[in-house]
Design a protein that fits this description.
Elements: H1 2-38, H2 42-53, H3 60-72, H4 76-87, H5 94-106, H6 110-123, H7 128-146, E1 151-155, E2 165-171, E3 174-179, E4 191-192, E5 197-198, E6 201-208, E7 213-219, E8 229-235, E9 240-252, E10 270-284, E11 287-288, E12 292-293, E13 304-309, E14 315-320, E15 330-335, E16 346-347, E17 358-363, E18 369-373, E19 383-387, E20 389-390, E21 393-394, E22 398-399, E23 410-417, E24 421-426, E25 436-442, E26 447-457, E27 463-465, E28 470-474, E29 480-488, E30 491-497, E31 501-507, E32 514-519, E33 528-535, E34 544-546, H8 560-575, E35 579-586, H9 593-613, E36 621-627, H10 643-649, E37 652-659
Parallel strand pairs: 26-33, 35-36
Antiparallel strand pairs: 1-25, 2-3, 3-6, 4-5, 6-7, 8-9, 9-10, 10-11, 10-12, 13-14, 14-15, 15-16, 17-18, 18-19, 19-22, 20-21, 23-24, 24-25, 26-27, 26-30, 28-29, 28-31, 29-30, 31-32, 34-37, 35-37
Helix pairs in contact: 1-2, 2-3, 3-4, 4-5, 5-6, 6-7
Length: 671
């Protein structure tokens, strides 16, 4: 008994010790995670938060913190998953809802994002403008996705690794790109805590744009010093590479924000932060000169990076968070002096700079500015925009839309053919790494889908699908361009060339042929031309009234308005080359029987002659004057009728009487 008691006591002591150790571990893990986040070591912070949450339920601020870490590493999917846990509770505030809507938008979940933007506007009256702007952007994004621009976009797999690769630029017959890929020179001390990957380096690439082949890629070791290096731009006139590099400086942050819902947790300790700076180096005799600092660098106070040059090389554009800007990062410019140095920085203005981030400027051969922004209406993250002008005078920025832009970050564009082809970078889903280089090329639609539906008129006047119709598409040369296959009963598909005129013709035994003209105006690559052909069954000796055939009193010559209707009979006979018809003319009961009989015969013969004169064989049509003998109402001799009732009897009809070649089995109106 004593032994049993001792065993139980020891077991309880062990379990108590484990609980105490777990509690101590939890108490130490969470502060360490927060400390790593304060130091921008987001990947380390995420691992510590996840470790803590294995045995502890996160509170609202814990969820905000890990969400912020995922956002900082561009893992918006995980950020959405975590923040959704808070959104479902009563602890979520308006700022949480706003961030959640932004994340949904960046995930391309536009319909959901709109709902949360609306909720944000309800929770915060000051957020109404922000919500409305983003709801409009969501609607635009859906429209752009549904009707994409005329560009083909492909992942350039030969340039990309499983890490981050971006910022392709031309250099001395080769190219330079920026990457944090793992190479032979990377050691543990070269890993960047923010991403958990190596620091960014510039690589020289022997890359053939014709087939996207890479024969050589190597680090530019003379320029890749500690910390990040890249992106860059190369000035062919001076053989000078201007590039971005980082410098680590001490930064004293503001005191801890007393607001427990703040998304910006601030520490009071002195920590190190990365600041960007621009340097230049000349490439001479296969060697790089010693890097020279850009005149407007000031890493103690702010960052300067992402250099770009005007077409003539006289203006340097760059990105900075220096004081005097419009938002988080702005595009600035500096004019080169005669001695090659750069003048004071000037802000590029409110037209292109917003309260958000403007980054990665590029000037094409025409002097147009391309840049990325998350402050202008876009699809989610950074979108690419175009503006015309120079210095601080610019046109309204134009979103490049889908498929160049996506819900994710799209940036660092470079054109191989101005306005039509080149490369850009993106962290969109489906890539090889976190950022990938993509090619794009202008590719307007060359074909359009043709969808034809065939129906027949039933005896009760309703419509039903008509199967097994022969559908031919006739081009402007009266040649068959295509014959369509039946996809399902009464439904036919094919493709036509864009910006052409065609005639779609349907034929089927025992039915009048039908045709219609189509213009293939292509606006997107998803355009479809819809055609509906309504068929009427051929019934021998069934009269069919030809509307709007009028004659002057006591005359039988063809009036211009009657010719329009007779032209339709000519077309019907042309489209149905096997039928033989009788054209009958009828009068009302006014006038003598003999007079009306003669007048109707002359009118029928006049109409038939018009049809023959327009190319129809006389063997296929006969004239018959019926006088007043076949009325359609009670208006006969001796009966008073209105003018309208008399007009119903004064008519022109045709009926199929037979076939010139083949004789399909067709019901007769006499049966």
């Amino acid at each position: 008994m004593k032994t049993k008691f001792t065993y139980i006591l020891r077991f309880l002591l062990v379990m108590f010790a484990i609980a105490i150790m777990s509690s101590i571990s939890a108490q130490t893990t969470l502060p360490k995670a927060e400390q790593q986040m304060d130091k921008f070591e987001y990947q380390k912070a995420i691992q510590m938060y996840l470790e803590h949450f294995d045995s502890n339920t996160p509170n609202a601020q814990d969820i905000r913190n890990i969400t912020f870490c995922y956002m900082s590493t561009n893992d918006t999917k995980s950020a959405v998953d975590w923040l959704s846990k808070l959104i479902k509770t009563d602890f979520a505030n308006s700022e949480d809802v706003k961030i959640y809507a932004d994340l949904l938008k960046e995930e391309g979940r536009y319909s959901e994002a709109k709902l949360y933007y609306q909720k944000y506007a309800e929770l915060d009256s000051n957020g109404k403008d922000y919500a409305e702007k983003n709801i409009e952007a969501c609607d635009l994004s859906l429209a752009w996705t549904y009707e994409p621009e005329y560009f083909d976009v492909f992942n350039v797999q030969s340039l990309n690794s499983d890490k981050s690769d971006f910022g392709l630029i031309p250099f001395m017959g080769k190219f330079v790109l920026t990457s944090d890929r793992i190479d032979k020179n990377v050691s543990q001390k070269d890993l960047y805590g923010w991403t958990g990957n190596p620091y960014l380096k510039m690589y020289s690439v022997d890359f053939k744009t014709e087939d996207n082949s890479v024969s050589e890629i190597e680090s530019i070791e003379n320029l890749n010093k500690e910390f990040h290096n890249g992106t860059a731009v190369f000035d062919e006139k001076s053989n000078t590479l201007y590039y971005t590099k980082t410098k680590t400086v001490k930064k004293t942050q503001k005191p801890v924000d007393p607001d427990p819902t703040s998304w910006f947790v601030e520490a009071s300790d002195e920590i190190y932060t990365n600041r960007l700076a621009i340097y230049s180096s000349k490439y001479e005799n296969g060697e790089w000169s010693y890097p020279v600092a850009f005149e407007n660098n000031n890493t103690a106070m702010f960052s300067v990076g992402h250099p770009a040059l005007s077409a003539d090389g006289k203006i340097m554009y760059f990105v900075s968070d220096m004081p005097g800007g419009q938002g988080m990062t702005d595009i600035w410019y500096s004019e080169k002096k005669d001695d090659g140095t750069c003048g004071d920085p000037r802000n590029a203005g409110k037209k292109i700079n917003t309260a958000g981030k403007e980054m990665f400027p590029y000037i094409d051969a025409n002097g147009d500015l391309y840049f990325s922004s998350n402050g202008l209406p876009g699809m989610g993250g950074l979108d690419l925009f175009k503006a015309s002008g120079q210095k601080k005078s610019w046109s309204e920025p134009e979103n490049l839309k889908y498929p160049i832009n996506s819900p994710k970050d799209d940036f660092a564009v470079y054109f191989t053919k101005t306005g039509e082809a080149g490369y850009f970078s993106s962290n969109r889903y489906g890539g090889q790494g976190s950022d990938d280089i993509y090619s794009f090329a202008y590719s307007p639609p060359t074909e359009i889908i043709l969808a034809v539906t065939t129906k027949e008129i039933l005896e009760d006047g309703t419509l039903a699908l008509l199967e097994d119709v022969s559908i031919d598409v006739i081009d402007n040369n009266d040649e068959v361009f295509a014959s369509l296959d039946q996809f399902s009963p009464g439904l036919y598909y094919g493709t036509l060339d864009c910006n052409q005129h065609y005639t779609v013709k349907g034929t089927k035994d025992e039915y009048f042929s039908q045709s219609t003209s189509v213009e293939t105006i292509c606006e997107t690559k998803n355009d479809t031309v819809y055609v509906e052909l309504i068929f009427e069954k051929i019934v021998i000796d069934k009269p069919i009234v030809i509307e709007n055939i009028y004659y002057y009193f006591d005359k039988w010559n063809i009036r211009p308005d009657a010719a329009v209707e007779l032209d339709k009979i000519v077309e019907l006979l042309q489209e149905n080359p096997d039928i033989i018809i009788e054209l009958g003319s009828h009068t009302d009961a006014r006038g003598s029987d003999k007079y009306n009989e003669n007048l109707s015969q002359k009118r029928a013969e006049s109409a038939v002659q018009y049809i023959i004169d327009n190319g129809i064989s006389k063997d296929r049509i006969t004239a018959k004057g019926y006088g007043e003998y076949v009325p359609v109402n009670e208006c006969v001799n001796g009966v008073y009728c209105s003018e309208e009732d008399h007009q119903l009897n004064s008519r022109t009809e045709f009926k199929v009487t037979g076939f010139s070649e083949k004789q399909p089995v067709i019901y007769s109106a006499k049966d």
